[in-house]
Amino acid sequence: MTRTPLLVEVLSLPGCPGAEGALSMAREVGAALAPGTDVRDIRLTEAQASERGFPGSPTVLVNGRDIEGSEPHAAGVA
User: Fold this and answer.
1) Between the chain's N and C termini, which has fewer beta carbons within 10 Å?
2) pLDDT in tens, 9-48
3) CA dist 2 to 10, 29, 31, 49, Å?
């Protein structure tokens, strides 16, 4: 049985003091629990955050779902 790799997105605003720690932890946990996990560092502008109804910085999404239980977000913000 082949597993589809997980997509983990760490979304943050410029200057977020917790962004680097969240990104590091996501990479560490992904590598340990699900090798092949794609971890992406996504920096949002204030306008992008406002458009998305961004819950807070940083936010970690796994396959588009907020790990803290907020509503699903659109993945792939550039």
Assistant:
1) N
2) 999 999 999 999 999 999 999 999 999 999 999 999 999 9
3) 25, 20, 17, 35
The token duo for 7 is: 């997509």
pLDDT for 1: 57
Domain boundaries, the chain: 15-66
- The residue type at 73: H
Q: How far apart are CA 71 and CA 16, in angstroms?
A: 21
Q: How much is the pLDDT for 29?
A: 95
**Residue 8 β-bridge partners:** 39, 62
Distance CA(37)–CA(33), nearest Å, equals 9
